[in-house]
């Protein structure tokens, strides 16, 4: 019939004109954009202010004194551990290090909201999650020093590339964002496993810089289209090495991308540990209950240099960092909250920092005195299964070099002494 609205078959017919669309029809010609549409930016969820006091109308998470104190202690340990390891790198005792200064609330608040057996795929700045799960300073030191007791990779990885099967923390890999599609795969595997379906989720941490990689989009699309319980935690700390987040995206941060993938999304004040805890706890519940991806963007600030290979004052004013440290310190903010409840005191603070320093120093001294792994360990567990031909070839070459120089050339003799077995294991 000429002029009549065509009747579309299928579920879409009552709304739009495409079979898969339920979009309402409008006669208004209008383009929209999360940046230019006034007041439409995603809000930031916060429950306590800078003085540690609850915001009006805010619902605080149900945490008792014991949990609050545990969270606080875990936050406090991070800068102490970072100070010591950062200095050890400066003294040339370890080859590399990365600190988490300023991001203590985002890291510990989220760790506390997860189940200990949720599968974590982290970037590299989230060692606090492992410590929360009981990794311990000895494991940290053995990995950073690459001793024969390194439980993560037997000295094969750069420092801070931790991992633990028992603690459900997948080993860190340096290439940015690779963990994101992997997490969607882990989430899918959890959904297929009757023992873990409805019980656990995959949790992926990544920086706002890593979110510019194609892998971020691949991971989000996968977890939303082939639904899986994958919890995406974006740590927006303002920088990707020297690139400020203002140059990283034009849209409304990372959170704005969630709705595009049909993913439940929240933006949270990453310096408010109680807000992070509440948001991640609820995100986890949704993620597992619906078996679908959820995105949390924590807004924070990278107070430290990117790594020991960076001097951030080459690209940001020292004053900006000092101001941030002073005005919005997540540890101070939570301490004020605890003190206002009578849950913490100055004496406890002193005793705690003293104890942590001692424990870290003891672990460091122990690790520094330990030998490096046997030389043959260099080739084991690089891949699963049989050793591939190229590693066999490299092992044979090293064997020849150890035979040729091991007993006669000083630099080789000194280097081999650092290893358990002094290279003899390779010649067996
Ligand atoms: C694929 C890839 N490109 C570049 C790098 C070098 N790189 C290491 S960390 C980093 C910045 C990442 O920033 P962000 O994701 O925001 O995390 P943050 O360091 O701020 O925690 C870059 C560019 C890399 N490791 N991998
Ligand atoms: Mg960043």
UniProtKB/TrEMBL annotation:
Q: Describe the reaction catalysed, as an equation.
A: N(6)-[(R)-lipoyl]-L-lysyl-[protein] + 3-methyl-2-oxobutanoate + H(+) = N(6)-[(R)-S(8)-2-methylpropanoyldihydrolipoyl]-L-lysyl-[protein] + CO2
- Top EC category: oxidoreductase
Q: Where is the Dehydrogenase E1 component domain?
A: 73-375
Q: What is its EC number?
A: 1.2.4.4
- For the region Disordered, what residue ranges are annotated? 1-21
> Can the keyword Oxidoreductase be found in this entry's annotation?
yes
Cite a single GO BP annotation.
branched-chain amino acid catabolic process
| GO MF annotation, one | branched-chain 2-oxo acid dehydrogenase activity
Organism domain of life: Eukaryota
Its needed co-factors are:
thiamine diphosphate
In the record, the note on similarity to other proteins reads: Belongs to the BCKDHA family.
Record-given protein name = 2-oxoisovalerate dehydrogenase subunit alpha
The organism is: Pycnoporus cinnabarinus
Q: What is the lineage of its organism?
A: Eukaryota, Fungi, Dikarya, Basidiomycota, Agaricomycotina
